[in-house]
Amino acid sequence: MSDHKTMTLTLIVWRQKKATDPGKFETYTAKDITEHHSFLEMLDCVNEDLIHAGKDPIVFDHDCREGICGMCSQVINGGHMAAGSYDGLSAAHAQFKDGDTILH
Question: Chain-centre distance of CA 23, in angstroms?
Answer without folding.
Answer: 18
